[in-house]
Amino acid sequence: EDQVTQSPEALRLQEGESSSLNCSYTVSGLRGLFWYRQDPGKGPEFLFTLYSAGEEKEKERLKATLTKKESFLHITAPKPEDSATYLCAVQADQAGTYKYIFGTGTRLKVLA
Amino acid sequence: KAGVTQTPRYLIKTRGQQVTLSCSPISGHRSVSWYQQTPGQGLQFLFEYFSETQRNKGNFPGRFSGRQFSNSRSEMNVSTLELGDSALYLCASSLHLAVQETQYFGPGTRLLVL
Q1: Which pLDDT score is estimated for A68?
Q2: Could you give the maximum distance between any two Cα atoms of chain B, in Å?
Q3: Each residue's pLDDT tens digit, B7-30
C-alpha cells in the first residue's frame, strides 16, 4: 500500500540547534516529492520539490535531500520563526493519472 | 500578485445540510485542487479541475463534488453533511495540471458540522 510517513511527530529545538526531519515513502512511479511549511490557521506554503534520488535543494536555513526511499529536511541553526508544521507530500503514477499523498507532518518548535 | 483566496473562511452547518465553498486561484493559474485536512487523517486529496474538467479524483464519496468556471474559479459542494465532514478545506492552484507542478494553497475554509 502506498504510504508516506513523517518522523518525528513533534520536535523541540533550542535556537541554533540543527536537526533533520524525515519523510519515508513507499510508492511506485514517483513523480515528485514536495515539502511544505504550515503555520497555525494558514494553508501550506511551498518550500521544495525534488524529482529524483540524489537531488538536493536549499533555501536559507533549510536543505532538502531525496533518496529512493526517503527525504530529509535539514534545518541548520534554526530560529524561533522556523516553528511550524512541516509537511511532506508525494506524487506518484496511478493508472493513467496520478495520486497525491501527504504525510501527517512534523510539528517543530524552536525555543529562543 | 494576489494569492489564492477562499470564501467563506468559517462555516457552521448541521447534519444533513449541504454547503458550497469557493476558491479563486492565482491569476493565470488554470488548475485548482481541493483537499480536506483533519487532525486524524492529515491532508487528503479530493479532486483537481483543469479547464473546467475534473482531471483527477481522490477516494471520497459522491457527496463531495466540484466544478470549475471559465475564469478558473472553482466551487466545492458537500451534500448531506455528516459530523465527520468537519475539517479545514483547502484549495490550491497551479499554472498547469498539478502533476510535478508547484501548488499554491489558500488559507482554507474551516467547516464545523453540528
Answers
A1: 92
A2: 39
A3: 999 999 999 999 999 999 999 999
The Cα-based distances of A90 to A22, A24, A64, B64 in angstroms read 13, 10, 14, 23
**Is A66 an interface residue toward B (CB < 8 Å)?**
no
What residue has cell string 485536512?
A: B37
Q: Could you tell me which chain B residue has the CA closest to the CA of A92? A: B99
Q: Give per-10-residue mean pLDDT for chain B (114 aa).
A: 92 98 96 94 93 92 97 97 97 87 93 98
| SS3 at position B89 | strand
Burial class of residue B6 in the structure, from the number of CB atoms within 10 Å of its CB (0-12 exposed, 13-18 middle, 19+ buried)? buried
- Give, in degrees to the nearest 5, the angle at Cα B41 between A14 and B46: 120
Answer yes or no: are the C-beta atoms of B87 and B81 closer than 8 Å: no
Residue A41 to residue B107, Cβ atoms within 8 A = yes
Contacts of B4 in chain A (CB under 8 A): 43
**Beta bridge pairs of residue B76:** B21, B66
The torsion of the CA quartet A20, A23, A24, A30, rounded to 10 degrees, works out to -130
